[in-house]
């Protein structure tokens, strides 16, 4: 399988979050979780002063653009390119050009590989986050996103929860 790289798509201004939601929905519907790994709208915290009051506000770092960590092939290109609100990939003549590590570094987004030493069926305990101290069994692992789907008991039934592999420990 080809390596996943970061690409940029141009969107209608103000539609960045809608495009992100639409792409994430397409990923689920078409089962492309292993090909389109991450969709991001980079944000930055800014202090605004209005009427003498300081306020922390999150603003889009690149209005009109969405970042995608994906394996480029005909299927993923088609899904992204035909998402409502997307006007095209960034690159010469709309040919998608991946971002380099140097271009990604200032954004605080890294594509470093996380070594996963868990397997499906392992019993784990969640060590941080909303599910802290919850015990579950790994049902699926997504190496690209470095997450594990674990089955936890809630209200007498098993429920699937996706957790970062950094937040779990083997029992």
Can you offer a commentary on this structure?
The protein has 171 residues and is of the alpha+beta class. It has two domains: 103 residues, Alpha-Beta Plaits, CATH 3.30.70; 48 residues, SH3 type barrels (Roll). The chain has three helices and eleven strands, in the order βαββββαβαβββββ. The chain has a five-stranded antiparallel β-sheet, with no helix packed on it. A hairpin with a 2-residue loop joins β3 and β4. The longest helix has 15 residues. It is globular. The model has no long low-confidence stretch (mean pLDDT 84).
CATH topology of the largest domain: Alpha-Beta Plaits
Low-confidence stretches: none
Cα(first) to Cα(last) distance is 32 Å
Average predicted confidence as pLDDT: 84
Number of strands: 11
Q: Please, how many helices?
A: 3
> What CATH first level of the largest domain would be assigned?
Alpha Beta
**CATH level-four homologous superfamily name of the largest domain:** NusG, N-terminal domain
Helix content: 10-25%
In spatial order, strands of the major sheet run 10-9-8-7-11
Order of helices and strands: EHEEEEHEHEEEEE
What percentage of the residues does DSSP assign to strands (E)? 35-45%
Structural classification:
alpha+beta
- The outline comes out as globular
Radius of gyration: 19 Å
CATH architecture of the largest domain: 2-Layer Sandwich
Whole-number tally of structural domains: 2
Largest sheet: 5 strands, antiparallel
Q: In a nutshell, what does this entry contain?
A:
By secondary structure, the chain is an alpha+beta fold. It contains three helices and eleven strands.
